[in-house]
Amino acid sequence: MLVDMTNPDRVSGMTAIFVADADLFRATKHAGGPWAPDMLQGSATTALMTREIERLSNESGFAVRRLTFDLWRPAGLRAFATKADMLRDGRKAKTVQVRLMDGEIEIGRCSALLTVQSDESPVDPFAHRTIVDTPPEAGMPPPAFAQKWSRYFQNVSVRLIEGALEKPGPAAAWMRLDAPLVEGQRNTPLLQAVQAADFSSGVAQIVDLREWTFINPDISLYFFRAPEDEWILIRAATRVGANGAGLTTATLSDRKGPFAEVMQAMTFERREAMRDQVS
Prior knowledge:
The protein is 17% helix and 38% strand. By secondary structure, it is an alpha+beta fold. Strands 1, 2, 3, 4, 5, 6, 7, 8, 9, 10, 11, 12 and 13 form a 13-stranded antiparallel β-sheet that branches.
């Protein structure tokens, strides 16, 4: 069946997050985020850039070790292009940059560190014994209203094993994006890890959302092995500092155990109505 890519209603009716159209990726309604249903979800932004990073990693044979995303501005459900540049092409380490473009406007950027892979790793004599986490099959889904947080999030399976999404505090939740990121393509474990990581601050939110808002304009992931499963466990916590600053940290795991650490810079602002009451 041919699809009219110029008709947003036809594109919005598909179950994928994006539909490939030549060199562009057109967002469907399933890419909608929490701030407005016609604005792109952060997880969709970071995962789409990761798709290009993973292609370059596979071509070079180098492993993805770090991904740092700067999310510069919101974007609507439009057509996007990815532009890649090799910033450092070393024998043991490469630095790659991918920009996400809305026409001539750059809405986000990913800097990736790729490193050469060795045949073996040393044994860590000080490593703690890995605790086996409760599997996703034994976890609990969140309340229906929490699952409706955004159109994108309605396509994510969630299984909580600690804490709760609807209550402040640290939590641990398995997540899996069920809809294809790009129509007709399989979601790789790396894509699953990156899209899940963006929810770290939400999993570990510590404020009353009726009184406060928060954003994370960046996110960094450091990998010490490649993820191997479609289900990704986020174990996250948030700390608050001075002048509205905060930091969310998270450990990402699959069924074999931890494989990456996540950091998100947080900015908190009191809602206007609550600020007037305090003053």
